[in-house]
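Dear all,

This email documents one entry for the complex benchmark we are building for the journal club exercise. For each entry we list the sequence lines for every component of the assembly. Then comes the predicted three-dimensional structure of the complex as a token string, followed by one or two observations. Please use this as the template for your own entries, and keep the labels exactly as they appear.
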Amino acid sequence: MKITGLSYRYPGQAKDALKRIDMTVHEGEFILLMGPSGGGKSTLLRALTGAIPHLYGGEISGDVIIYGRNTRNHGPKEFADLLGMVFQDPEAQLVMTSPENEVRFGLENIGVENGGIERRIEESLEITNIGNFRKKFIPEMSGGEKQKLAMASIIAMDTNILLLDEPTSQLDPKSAEEILSILRKFNEERGVTIILVEHRLERCFRFADRAVFLKDGEIVLDDRMDDYIVKARKSGGIFLPPITYLSGTRGNEVPTTVKEARKIVHNALLNNELSYVSRSIPFQTGRNLIHLSNVDFSYGNSKVLSGLDLRIREGEKIALVGRNGAGKSTLLKLMNGILKPDQGRVTVNGMDTRRHPTSKLAKICGYLSQNPSDYLHQKTVEKEIFLGVAKSDVDLSYMAWIIESLSLEEHLDTYPRDISAGERERVALASILALRPKVLALDEPTRGMDYTQKDILARMLNEEGKGKLASIVATHDVEFITAYANRVIILGNGNILADGPPKKVLPGSLLFSPQVNLATRGFLELGLREDIIRPRELKWSSKEKPTGHSRHSQKGVPSAIAPRTGIRSRKRGQENAVRNGGSIV
Amino acid sequence: MIPIYSPKNNSIHSIPLGSKCIYAGGALVSVMIINHPVILAAGLLSIAMVFWRAGEIMNWLWYLKVFLVLGVVYFAISVLVSQQGETTLYEALMQNSYFHEESWLPFLNQFLKRVTGNVNPIVIDEGIFSIITIEEVVFGISFVLKLLLSLSIFILFSLTVHPDNLLRRLGRRAVRSALALSIAVRLFPTLIKDANDIYEAYVSRGIPLDQRNSFLRWIRRIPLMIPLLANSLERTNTLAESMECRGFGRQLGPTTVLKKRKSGHFFRSIEFSSLSMVTIILPCIFLLLLLTQLGGWGMKSSYTVDMGVGSNEAVLGILLILMMGAPMVSSVLGGGGN
């Protein structure tokens, strides 16, 4: 695949979405396509399938040549047997009503023989672990199952190239791991070329051979992984998974897997060469804001929550985790009265949700759903943000703070549906923050957000209302939790399985442990994202020193994981204190 | 929520598509040629048993409730407007001043006089407005029953036929229409979910859409159509892109069509399912029904007060019950297996 001088502008847009892209993709490569949201990653994938310009129109210059065929002359359907694409939202790419027919759809279109079709259906559904759902009705499948089916329908076509646009963004850690393992297997064993767009690098960094960093429609970095790590550090280190900060003693040994990191940590520990940073998120709790008492909730015959008790107090930053379908969204909706409990009682600031309309409760408990597009129907981003705020309540300095913090200044006059998925998420969030609720319930707000934006979000939630805002975030993003939460709730089996500070709850979890914790497990028993430990010898020169979020940056510490409480060296003897106390500050 | 197809593992759902098509066709013709309300009611009970066996009784009742409203409206108009029949049922209404010249009609006349200049544009013919006969009532009931039976046949077909199977059976001849149906069934629950999510998103922003006054509540929800439409269009776009990326619309054409064209065989083996007995039972009943019609059994005037059920009507009723309940009979005989 050869891309030369590719520039592209969407119809009616003033700016180019892609600018002079030059890139050659070799057979069997696993490329990780990274960059801030709105940087042009999805647009580049569309250009590779031929959907740009054939389905989208617009102005294009340059060429994309795939196996000798130019996408200017051949549309997506003509590349269907060479190139498969998995989209971010599985809901929008499944055509048929049963999994076997969904897989069959593509195979029949490209003229696979009848016998081959049945074999490929069987095999692709088995590989993606949905063989048992062969005849299930697709609308009744869960989000994770649908994403696996979307994957199955593409891999069944046995294409040479796979393009994937954030295929794991809606999945819990286990399902995401399954999808990425399939990709690695296809890449390593079948030589399939893979181009993967992903924001949560800790999941997939180790699989990739090459990293391409796209910003404002331009390729900023395009290197093998080792070179990328070095260059990414020099340029701020934002787009690196936390585990890469556990560098070796000489600073040139950069781990990309937990196994490698464990070896480095172990050696450094033996040589007493460890330094670490840590922080504690201020945990001020005030009065009760939300109280769920013995709450039951069912969808039809399916019971989701059973006898749940929960109190949320002023100032708490709660992360709500659990597998897909554990009832996280349901719990958030119960909190602002969108759903009413079958049994039990939910009170918001003392008001029973059964007796008060949601529109009234929304002033106290704001809710952001999973799909930010549900919020967009005004003509401009600015109108969208101000929609729920009464004119008399507008506080311009506060609104300016929201807009600036979420980097929405340049989009204020843009039509909200003309911006990227990550930017839409920020607009929807701004529109909820604008109401100045006392409690914020956010459902997967980090989807489509890069590390910088996640860091900003965590900071906003911690700073808003002088720390008095209570927030509860349902998320699969374990690394975000460690930057944001002072309380973690694991939901499962219709009730709360674990509830406590992140340092107590996460390290003990088999599914929701952050990478740094896994890398230090058994040695230090710490290792949330903020507890980065590094050999003392690894110094950042002033030139290398990260530039982003300067007010939180400290010497020798990458800004993306900026600690709040300083750097301390430690000796082995201090380990017990950490084990017993949970906090190392 | 509007009930749509959902797969179920029972004998009615398992009946082959071809048999269901024959059933639907035969049942529809039978409903058309029979007018006796008692027999039609028996047919309705019979098809109810089929819905029960198919596990779709609640879904059927949901639709029935909707169409019953239409039926009642039709019945009321038919009875009030029609002048047919001899056995007057509500003659007393002729004297009712409600329709009399001195009540509301003169106001209408006054208005029409001004507009048209005609001195007396509406001639009061009491018969037009007030005669209600038993024949009209019987005819109205028959018609409503026919309407409900016909719709029930369509509902049974749509609730028990997998749209993907329909798509495959239609092959190239109507592939786009069948695919559209399949996509509609696939995306309908998504559309409902979208509408719900958008509503939730807006009330969560403090916009008072959840008023107690149901009229205001619905009026205020109208603007939500905009994001719903925008979401649907975006999804349509991605869906089209996904379909193209999987080769939809390539010149090569679907495999199944190619295979049939190339095979050149005149005969092919088919698996006989005991559930397919519906295809054997049905034509026999249908033939008998036709014979009874030719014998004049079902030729009663629509406008008759003769509601009696003689031996002819009894036979006709049994035949219609068998006709409408053929899938039930077939599934019982077939034991639900192949």
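Observations: Chain B touches chain A through 60 residues (CB under 8 Å). Residues 239 and 271 of chain B are 36 Å apart (CA to CA).
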